[in-house]
Amino acid sequence: MSKHSINGKVVLIAGGVKNLGGLLARDLAQQGAKAVVVHYNSASSQGDANATAAALEALGTQAVVLQADLTTAGAVEKLFSDAVAAVGRPDIAINTVGKVLKKPMAEITEAEYDEMMAVNSKTAFFFLKEAGKHLNDNGKICTIVTSLLGAFTPFYAAYAGSKAPVEQFTRAAAKELGARGISVTAVGPGPMDTPFFYPAEGQDAVNYHKTAAALSPFSRTGLTDIEDVVPFIRNLVSDGWWVTGQTILINGGYTTK
Ligand SMILES: NC(=O)c1ccc[n+]([C@@H]2O[C@H](COP(=O)([O-])OP(=O)(O)OC[C@H]3O[C@@H](n4cnc5c(N)ncnc54)[C@H](OP(=O)(O)O)[C@@H]3O)[C@@H](O)[C@H]2O)c1
């Protein structure tokens, strides 16, 4: 078993039962992961959790499903300790947890601000902390952020602003864990064609993203397919381990930095 291959490794994915996280879970199982622990939060994700677990088992990978709201440090610690109890220390930990809010700053309430910070920022911080404590040496950690970190655009102050600290958390964790061979990265997809994208956007914005070829130099829709993001993350958490401390935008040229 090579130090950096996925074959035979233990994987933990927060938000791992559907959309980007669900595809990542299936992909890493296809690469030969020994066990994949997939987390979900909402009761409405239970069906996706069952389907993902069945898909992983069909690929010969041990599947463990854990449910939690991860907005407290204790919940993130429990996620990792339950995963270790079930399948041993992870080699790869990926955090896809996120929540979007599109609103002018003047309309954002204190409760909405606090929720954005809790889901996008606090969860990511404690995920990195617990991953550092629980991962095997030569492990890989990746957090999903957003391509809005490279954008100059209104209405995403709370969403992009609560993902932005992850860039600095990633740098710090990469420095602190590097001596153990652990790489730490963040990936910011472009607006992805998943149910996450649509509720926060008005119809005008959806139409714009779907039709504006100018959003990508590739002259196609500006929306990113999760199938175009997964191979990059797969590489970062395996042979691409030499990339560390960095936040990389995967978006067909939608935004850059
Ligand atoms: N889709 C886009 O346009 C887009 C673009 C750029 C970046 N992103 C980022 O990409 C990531 C994945 O998004 P996606 O499109 O694949 O949608 P998604 O499946 O809805 O991903 C969001 C995940 O966050 C989880 N989550 C939300 N609140 C939580 C909480 N309090 N505790 C624990 N988990 C919680 C959700 O679980 P439950 O649903 O079970 O609550 C879900 O698994 C997110 O971080 C998002 O910010 C998305």
Describe this structure in words.
This protein is an alpha/beta fold. The chain has one domain (10-196, 227-249): 3-Layer(aba) Sandwich (Rossmann fold). The protein contains eight helices and seven strands. The protein has a seven-stranded parallel beta sheet with strand order 3-2-1-4-5-6-7, with helices on both faces. Helix 1 links the parallel strand 1 and strand 2 (35-40). The longest helix is centred in the middle third of the chain and has 25 residues, at 110-134. It is globular, with a radius of gyration of 17 Å. The structure holds NADP nicotinamide-adenine-dinucleotide phosphate.
Q: What's the CATH H-level superfamily name?
A: NAD(P)-binding Rossmann-like Domain
Biggest pleated sheet: 7 strands, parallel
Which spans have pLDDT < 50 for at least 5 consecutive residues?
Answer: none
Helix share of residues? Answer: 40-55%
> What order do the SSEs take from the amino end to the carboxyl end, as H and E?
EHEHEHEHEHHEHHE
Number of domains: 1
State the strand order across the main sheet.
Answer: 3-2-1-4-5-6-7
What small-molecule ligands were found?
NADP nicotinamide-adenine-dinucleotide phosphate
**Overall CATH architecture:** 3-Layer(aba) Sandwich
Number of strands: 7
Supply the helix-strand structural class.
alpha/beta
Radius of gyration: 17 Å
CATH class: Alpha Beta
Q: The CATH topology, please?
A: Rossmann fold
Straight-line distance between termini: 36 Å
Family: Belongs to the short-chain dehydrogenases/reductases (SDR) family.
Domain Ketoreductase: 9-190
InterPro entries: KR_dom (IPR057326), NAD(P)-bd_dom_sf (IPR036291), SDR_fam (IPR002347)
Keywords: Oxidoreductase
